[in-house]
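User: quick one, sequence for these tokens?
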């Protein structure tokens, strides 16, 4: 193989293993891979075109886990699905003459990138063939084998796409966080955030954002709902998924971020970054009798300070900065 292809193999193997090189941008690398693969069907009339179909199917399959699990980029999702759909349309689902058990075993991750890069060229294929029987080498080109890989990758990509970018339904949480009289149960939201092992942070943020945008919020609930949104977005490992962040940004952008006041300090500044302290402060605010522990000093516990528009503005500003701001595009 040429040095260029060896470097390409190193780069793609690092991505497929979940540890891309610091010199590699996975977004641009995988985006370029998918765009190149999309041109494969137009080149199938040549031996090189057939080699590319095998190679690109393996490479897209081997790196698709990184796209679904780590990248979260709308443009790459679309490019991968488009490229795999295009390749899949050229494969005959009945064209298999392989003996039983001849199809390659695991081609996930680095095994797939190793095979894909080698099978891209004649010289790479010759080097790869030294370790295989002729039947096994031929099986890599089998249209049924390649079709199964493409189907598996597209299925996982579409499922992850819907979860990441689709409109997530959290109406099932209405009964948990809404009371029978139409009020928001702020304490229930905080308790859900406290159950870290349930991964409630993102659903709490999304439910709070949607409730805020619906306008179904009593005046006294606004601070608690905003804090629940702020805390949920802050605690989501890796940041809110785009489908969630879209609603969170919209809710936060509806809050005036230019508000000022004469207060030297606000309650949230006294709470700090301790999650338990945050939950105790909010629960004490809304149910002091049931939650007497209050990490906020008495001089900052006045309700007017909690509800101060300047504090709300600061919460909105910091959350929007964390989410990338209202202008952040999912199409990256």
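Assistant:
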């Amino acid at each position: 193989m040429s040095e260029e292809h060896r470097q390409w193999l190193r780069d793609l193997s690092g991505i497929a293993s979940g540890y891309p090189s610091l010199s590699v941008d996975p977004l641009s690398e995988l985006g370029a891979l998918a765009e190149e693969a999309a041109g494969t069907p137009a080149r199938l009339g040549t031996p090189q075109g057939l080699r590319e179909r095998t190679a690109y199917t393996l490479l897209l399959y081997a790196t698709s886990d990184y796209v679904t699990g780590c990248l979260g980029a709308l443009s790459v999702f679309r490019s991968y699905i488009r490229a795999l759909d295009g390749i899949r349309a050229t494969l005959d689902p009945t064209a298999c003459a392989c003996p039983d058990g001849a199809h390659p075993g695991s081609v996930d991750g680095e095994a797939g990138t190793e095979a894909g890069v080698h099978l891209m060229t004649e010289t790479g294929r010759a080097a790869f063939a030294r370790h295989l029987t002729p039947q096994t080498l031929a099986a890599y080109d089998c249209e049924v084998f390649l079709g199964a890989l493409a189907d598996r990758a597209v299925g996982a990509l579409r499922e992850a796409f819907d979860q990441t970018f689709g409109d997530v339904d959290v109406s099932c949480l209405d009964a948990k966080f809404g009371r029978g009289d139409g009020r928001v149960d702020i304490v229930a939201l905080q308790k859900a955030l406290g159950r870290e092992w349930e991964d409630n942070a993102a659903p709490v943020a999304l439910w709070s954002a949607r409730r805020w945008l619906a306008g179904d919020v009593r005046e006294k609930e606004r601070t608690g709902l905003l804090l629940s949104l702020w805390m949920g977005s802050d605690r989501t490992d890796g940041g809110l998924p785009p489908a969630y962040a879209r609603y969170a940004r919209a809710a936060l952008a509806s809050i005036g971020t230019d508000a000022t006041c004469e207060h030297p300090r606000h309650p949230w500044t006294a709470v700090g970054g301790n999650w338990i302290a945050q939950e105790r402060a909010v629960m004490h605010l809304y149910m002091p009798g049931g939650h007497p522990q209050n990490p906020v000093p008495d001089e900052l516990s006045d309700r007017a300070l909690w509800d101060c528009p300047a504090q709300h503005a600061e919460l909105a500003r910091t959350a929007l900065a964390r989410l990338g701001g209202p202008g952040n595009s999912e199409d990256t």
